[in-house]
Amino acid sequence: MITVIEKIEEEGGQLKFTPVGFTQDQELINEINEAYDSGLGKFFGENRTKLEIGEITINAFFDVTPSVNEARTQQENTDGLRELKNINEL
């Protein structure tokens, strides 16, 4: 089983998920997901109600941070994705 690494960006007010590679390295998976959790994940947690009622938009996060990565999707094959061995390859 491999873990797909996705780049998350804002496009037209919507989240865009783009697969950028895969890994089997649990340390890399943890590093990517910890960065996600302390960035976009934290933003969602702190602003859920404001996002739901339209007081702010997702642009508030992506105006400051152009993209984030997440490594949570697991699948059997690589689908032509390249293997990433460290976070600097993102």
Descriptive notes:
The chain has 90 residues and is α+β, with helices and mostly antiparallel strands. The protein contains 2 helices and 3 strands. It has helices at 26-53, 59-62; strands at residues 2-11, 14-23, 67-75. The protein has a 3-stranded antiparallel beta sheet.
Quick overview:
By secondary structure, this protein is of the alpha+beta class.
Q: Helix count, per DSSP? A: 2
Low-confidence stretches: none
Strand order, sheet with most strands: 2-1-3
Strand residue percentage: 25-35%
Mean pLDDT, all residues: 96
Tertiary shape: elongated
Distance between the termini: 21 Å
Tally of extended strands? 3
Report Rg: 14 Å
Question: Any chance you could write out the topology, listing elements then pairs?
Answer:
Layout: E1 2-11, E2 14-23, H1 26-53, H2 59-62, E3 67-75
List the defining traits of the structure above.
90 residues, alpha+beta, 32% strand, 3 strands
